[in-house]
Amino acid sequence: MKEMTALKDPMVPAPFRIERVRKELSDTFTIDLVSAERRRAFSFLPGQFNMLYVFGVGEIPISISGDPADPETIVHTTRAVGSVTNAMWKLGAGQTIGVRGPFGTSWPVEKAEGLDVVIVTGGIGLAPLRPAIYQIMSNRAAYGNVCILYGARTPEDILFRKELEKWRGQFDLQVDVTVDYATGRWAGRVGVVTKLIGRGGFDPHQTVALVCGPEIMMRFAVEALAERGVPNERIYVSLERNMKCGIGFCGHCQLGGDFVCKDGPVFGFDKIAHKFAIQEL
Amino acid sequence: MVQEIGLDQLIREHPFFEGLDDATLELIAGCAANERFDAGQYVFREGQPADKFYMVRHGSVALEVRAPGRDSIVLQTCDDGDVMGWSWLVPPFRWKWDARATRLSRLVSFDAICLRGKLDADPALGYAMYKRFVRVIAERLANARLQMLDLYGAGKE
Ligand SMILES: Cc1cc2nc3c(=O)[nH]c(=O)nc-3n(C[C@H](O)[C@H](O)[C@H](O)COP(=O)(O)OP(=O)(O)OC[C@H]3O[C@@H](n4cnc5c(N)ncnc54)[C@H](O)[C@@H]3O)c2cc1C
Ligand code: FES
To answer: What is the CATH number of the domain that holds B74?
Structure first.
């Protein structure tokens, strides 16, 4: 995984101006940020996150959800769940936010070249994977089959719906969406996202799997991938733990001997399989 | 030219029937028929006698519950390759849900009345078929539990 282009002092937030805020879902919004100091490039790798500081409220880790090919604008998609995320949603264009980053490991987009790619994701988990999808699509010929399997709670909770519909319309991409709850008005699939793994058009022995979503979903997704024959060392998951420093100093995000902020958030499943089984539940 | 796979071959190649001997496969194929449902058409309705089970060849069928005064609630969809319906195995042999094609769907139906008698008469065959249905039922139960967990969390009201 490449070295990241970090800001000068990793503990000092740099001011970024909010260029745009848009509502994605009833509880989810996307903000576009540009450097307040000068329009400088901000390069990142798909899967990395920034520590976003809402002045006077607090600082939280949020993955970057934009296109790595656009280094001018940093895009974050956030679900409002608590004090910082709700305060962030109240900010408007022109206001300033503190940014530290980019931090953490990335999706193995380059390592996956020459192989099929299956992306299994649910809910807000699509946001940290979107940069990987952009990068794969910009170099589409380098990959075999590419499948995006996405699960949401209801049809109204499908994130980036227009983009999913656009991708689905392409000949070189398989996009399958399923929801957990729907009424008869929804003409798509109803059922858990893991069920899609059994029918995805990929060769399990020649596939890299990128998995991001709630931890329980990831556990069952990994199980379904293994059942199809995808080896652990080609399954990657992105983990979330509470964070403070974001750079491996404070120990807040410790997971066994690893720090999620520094050794993750993207982990090869073979590296964390033994810890994964006992987390959360 | 697109060649339609025959029922016989389709049944032989479907993972659900894997491991059954030729005589059993022949017997099952003898109870099978192709059926076509247009989008919106019901495959079966709640309360009706469950005298068939189905395999989805192509398409999508929503299993749903009617709710008076509101839209029906979809419990799950059955899509290409899925085996659908086990009420034919459990008294009183009536469908618990509605099944509605959400788009043009081609299904294989299996005459359960003919099969039920044969399973009762031949315990080895009965066991082989029950084993296969238990897998489907267990998978459905596991998936239904996951759906109930509300993994992705409640949206903001
Ligand atoms: C590496 C990493 C990347 C992340 N990327 C994203 C992202 O791209 N988009 C995004 O929306 N979030 C992301 N998160 C999660 C995000 O950091 C938290 O949601 C945020 O810290 C919550 O802060 P808060 O002050 O708003 O909530 P708090 O006030 O701290 O919490 C309020 C309530 O929300 C619950 N809560 C806290 N975190 C979560 C969570 N992750 N999911 C559900 N409920 C939660 C708490 O248990 C509590 O009940 C990421 C986390 C990590 C570690
Ligand atoms: S957040 Fe401080 S060590 Fe990871």
So the answer is: 2.60.120.10
CA dihedral A233, A237, A242, A245 (to 10 degrees): 60
Name the strand (E) or helix (H) holding B99. Answer: strand B98-101
* pLDDT greater than 70 at residue A110: yes
Write down the pLDDT at residue A281.
Answer: 35
Same domain, yes or no: A132 and A236:
yes
One-letter amino acid for residue B43 of the chain = V
ipTM over 0.90: no
Please determine, for residue A36, whether its predicted confidence score (pLDDT) is greater than 70. yes
Residue A142's CATH number: 3.40.50.80
Q: Do A192 and B143 touch (CB under 8 A)?
A: yes
Q: Which of A29, A50, A81, A124 to probe ligand 1 with, by most ligand atoms within 8 A of CB?
A: A81
CA distance B54 to chain A (A): 18
Chain B positions in Cβ-Cβ contact with residue A174 (cut-off 8 Å) = none
Interface mutation target, options B105, B152, B157, chain A, most CBs of A under 10 Å: B152
Which site among A189, A193, A223, A281 would you substitute to test the B interface, given the most B Cβ atoms closer than 10 Å to its Cβ? A189
pLDDT tens across B51-105, in order? 999 999 999 999 999 888 888 999 999 999 999 999 999 999 999 999 999 999 9
Q: What per-residue confidence (pLDDT) applies to A6?
A: 52
Pocket of ligand 1 (CB under 6 A): A 49, 58, 60-63, 77-79, 81-85, 124, 127-128, 240-241, 243, 265; B 153
The reported pLDDT for the residue numbered A130 is: 98
Statement to judge: residues A136 and A263 lie in one domain? yes
Q: Are residues A145 and A251 in the same domain?
A: yes
Q: Could you write out the DSSP letters of every residue in A212-278?
A: ES-HHHHHHHHHHHHHHT--GGGEEEE-----SSSSSSS-TTEETTEETTTT-SEEEHHHHHHHHTT
A103, A136, A151 — which closes off a domain?
A103
- Look at residue B70 in the predicted model and tell me its pLDDT: 85
Domain that holds residue B84: 7-148
A155 and A177 co-located in one domain: yes
What pTM was computed for the model?
A: 0.92
Question: Using CA atoms, how far apart are residues A214 and A216, in angstroms rounded to an integer?
Answer: 6
How far away is chain B from the Cα of A31, in angstroms, using its nearest Cα?
A: 18
Domain boundary among A103, A138, A173: A103
> What residues make up the domain containing A129?
116-276
**Residue B1: per-residue pLDDT:** 46
In this prediction, residue B2 carries a pLDDT of 47
Are A214 and B64 inside 8 Å of each other by CB? no
